[in-house]
Amino acid sequence: MPATPSWPPKSAPRLFVAEELHAGAAVRIEGNPAHYLARVMRAGPGDVVILCDDVTGEWAARVSDVGKRDVMLEVAERLRAREAVPDLWLCPALLKKDRYDLILEKATELGASRIQPVLTRRCVADKLNMDRARTITTEAAEQCARTALPQIAEPLKLDAVLANWPETRALFFADENGGEPAAHSFAQHQGPAGILTGPEGGFDEAERAAIRAHPAARPITLGPRILRGETAAIAALAAWMATAGDW
Question: pTM for this structure?
Answer without folding.
Answer: 0.93
